[in-house]
Amino acid sequence: MSETPRRRFCKRRTPGISPAPRSVLESAPLPFHNKRAMTVDFDTPVERRGTGSIKFDRRPGLDPFWVADMDFVSPPCILDSLHRRVDHGVFGYAQAHEALDDAVLAYLRNRRGVTVDAAALTHLGGLVPALSLAARAWCRPGDSVMTCTPVYPPFLGVHRDAHAGLITVDHVMRDGAWSFDFEAMERSVTPTTRVFLLCNPQNPLGRVFPNDELVRLAEFCESHDLILVSDEIHCDLILDEASTPHVSTLHLPERFLSRVVSLLSPSKTWNIAGLGHAIAVIPDENVRRRFLSARGHTLAEISALSYHAAEAAYRHGEPWRRELIAYLRGNRDVLIDFINRRCPGLSIIPGEATYLAWIDASALDAANPAKWFEEKAGLFLSDGAAFGWPRFVRFNFGCPRARMMEGLEKLAAAL
Predict the structure, then answer these.
(1) CATH number for the 319-414 domain, one of 2.60.40.150, 3.30.720.10, 2.40.70.10, 3.90.1150.10?
(2) How is residue 353 annotated by DSSP?
(3) Residues 259, 265 contacting (CB under 8 angstroms)
(4) CA neighbours within 13 Å on the CB side: how many for 310?
(5) pTM of structure
(6) 20: helix, strand or coil
(7) For residue range 235-248, what is the model confidence (pLDDT) as tens digits?
(8) Are 206 and 359 in contact (CB under 8 A)?
(9) Confidence class of residue 39 from pLDDT cuts 50, 70 and 90?
(10) Which CATH number is 98-316 given?
């Protein structure tokens, strides 16, 4: 531990008892410990093999473009906050400090146009546990959960935690954009369906659903008395907010808010997924009480580092995020052009959000395209079957452009 932070914290404790600071981040900024991270540099590769990364170390013989984390160093503001918290040197049980809630509420006001009380916030160790909590809170054995496919794989498994069933309805293409098939949803819903799981922005389609579709979805949930659980973890990764702005379920007309659970996390945008932190925003007190009642003893404590990284992201991470979006938009455009020009047998619809490309490989003579590219090109891609749509693959372009091009060249060479 350095002497400077040791003296700083000792002064707060003597003489006598002084009020505890609301946040370590309220102290004067310290110099960055990682000098390389002071500038925004998305082109310099970072060696991740041998670091315990599931992306690179799960199957080290393959070139990985699968799981949804990026290959970029996290923002300097987050690194600085983590260093300060580590320099404190004590890592006991932690809770969300007041400054974190202030930062989240300010983010909701300034970025989302939503005003809620701090009581509406529930901090969790990840977004997937929140999906499981919702299923367990409102479903009993024999009930069912509904969602639309393709979708992030845990959506297709959390119903088992509640011993409930699963109803899936495919998204459909309308006027060149992915949409809900409301007619099929009406045919599929049952009297024992309790929860609808929404992914918006949609993973893996990259779709940002417009306001009219979300209102219609809320009306569907209202007519069938469903709780609407909305995963909005990619809401800050929209590649052109002017043309496809994100509409949160928190923006729905007030009559729908008594059935809404909106889920957020800084993890994807600021590349801190490994720290494990998410936030459930639940405006209605009765819904919030029901949601929290399902926790039991199944959830782990949240790390002190996670809380401070989240505060730094929401309070200071916006300039870095804007630079990131510009870079990802460039990656997406290069990828789309490459697939269209160089990859016969593959097709793709440009995503409006995320750093994940959903590629249609159904024209290939391959029952499992992900396995085919593994064998032919040494690539580790996400298998569309896990999302409910076999014959597709998902390609993660959240990486330096030169590395993305290496992966795309391997894709083309295999074809």
Answers:
(1) 3.90.1150.10
(2) B
(3) no
(4) 34
(5) 0.90
(6) coil
(7) 999 999 999 999 99
(8) no
(9) low
(10) 3.40.640.10
